[in-house]
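Think of the structure tokens as a kind of shorthand, similar to the way a musician reads notation: each symbol stands for something richer, in this case the local conformation of the backbone. In the example below we present two proteins back to back. Begin with the first one, reading the sequence and then the tokens, and try to describe in your own words what changes along the chain.
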Amino acid sequence: MKWLDQAERRFGHLAIPRLLRLIVAINALVFVLYKLNPYWLQQLALDPAAVRRGEVWRLATYIFIPAVGGPIADFFVAALYLWYLWWLGDGLEQAMGSFRLNVFYLLGMLGTTVAAFFFGANFSTSMLNASLFFAFARFFPDMTIYLLALVPVKVKWLAWFSGAVILLGVVFGSWGYRLAVVAAFANYLLFFGAQIFQDARQRRDIALRRQRFETARGEEPGEALHHCAVCGRTDATAPDLDFRVARDGQEYCTEHLPKIAASGEL
């Protein structure tokens, strides 16, 4: 992507290194504040009506809301969520670099905000984090993770499953929901859409060439490597026969070799 290369040359020095680690740290702080006073989360959520009333900090603070799982599972769910973000961030920064990851995340935030304001989708950070995971899966598709520390699953299969769930929502959801999904995944489409299209076209071309090759082979069964000068059979019409070349330069099947040998031509 030329525009991204040019932007990195000009603004690469402004990138925030270890961006996802910083977000994880602030999420952890917000979790502590939430345990002290649950009202904190309401003040940070992405609420278009509240933003229109002047609470503009909500355009950014919603990314600092950690996942929670009820009074009993709060600490476990929050710890798992923070570890997940840390893991994704380190992998993506290794693959993309700090600047590109910063741009990818910023575009994801922008898409989530558009989805909330124009299409009424309350995605919060779910779609933003999903776009991070899909990007991770493109770079590390064969990495194996263990669900519940027991079941080994490759990252690409989890990505396919997550994509299928989202696709079901797109197929059976409203047009508002469909447009909201497109907006939320704008970062992924901008970064990887051209490559996905190119890969699909390449797979189609390979399939067409294979089909033409197999069709051509089926239309020309008479092209054989071996041919008996006596009976006319070939390895195509009689694949179980063995063939030999005589001294006269002719090729014969094994059934006719004794007669040729007796005549002294071998």
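Once you have a description of the first chain, move to the second and do the same.
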Amino acid sequence: MPAFSQLNPFVASMQPSATLAITARAAALRKEGRDVIGLSAGEPDFPTPAPIVEAAHQALRDEKFGYTANAGTPELRAAIADKLTRVNGLAVKPGQVICSNGAKQSIAQAVLAAASPGDEVAFAAPYWVSYPEQARLAGAEPVAVRTEPADGYVLRPDALDAALTERTRVLILNSPSNPTGTVLSRAEMEAIAEVLERYPRVLVVSDEIYEDVVFDAEHVSFGTMPGMAERTVTVNGFSKGYAMTGWRLGYLAGPAWLTEAVDTLQSQLTSGPSSITQAAAVTALSMDRAPIDAMVAAFRERRDAVLARLVAIDGVRCATPQGAFYLFPDVSGLFGRTTPKGERIDDSLGLCRYLLDDAAVALVPGEAFGDARGLRISYATSMEALMTAMDRIEAAVAALA
């Protein structure tokens, strides 16, 4: 390798998103004429609510074209602080809020600001695909804490306690969870907080991007746990709950020592997010929630329909997710079976390849989320497409020997 082509070792250690890789493979098959049903992407299939769109149009008419403050406009930061205080029970001031180009950027910047080479960044497995890579970018070691399907993939305090060390700098919590849909209860969060009392060096990054998509549970912000406010960074955004994925707007709120560092970091990376998006987001936080409630109701109906089909398949088990728009079935009961072409299914990656190539259904293998026993099904698509996909999956599984 020529000397000029040597990469930063932290960047070289990162892996590309498996979600995007599956989506790309599905797109390639579609170009070949295959009728592929994509259940791999985590993107609401609903339009952005009309009041938000109109607010963006008005911002354009008002010629709000210029750069905003690096951390976001005063109006948006105040609206977010008010929402976090009023809805989430977090005592947040506007100066503690940093707006970014998506929640992913907020998480990455929090980890980069807090973790150093030699530190550890812990999170529950199955995990969102970006957590370990963001830890590696900071030079830290990712530590996945195994959870079990029988427990509904809840992070148990004993497992967490066994995983934390003197090197642990950051714990990332994700409730509701991507990919499992698990929602941590208040009691479960209190148990985690009790463990963290023995590890005063650990900063918590609470990823709450799916806060609005909750079905059978109460969403609780971890920063409201006793003793956790000063050591918790709350991350959220507008992509999932408001169907604003392409608008690119997230935020974090936390203690001043961390948010000041993130503000500096962001000023040298991207500066503030889109001025038009920020103007629209102020309206999002104050609009009537009827469109959001309707979207969540549709997600719940889809969840119930797909779950009923899944658990009826021999060899498949699936806990009932309480939030987000994913199912993460345990498909290990299918391992060892053979495809009609004589290929043995040994893991979820092999199963997903089989379902994509033979059934034209795109799913994400559990290996991408740190748990090869499962796979992720996104039900953020129409009921018709979901039922057709389940027909294909059932037929493909039935064809396994």
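Compare your description with these statements about the second chain. The chain has 13 helices and twelve strands.
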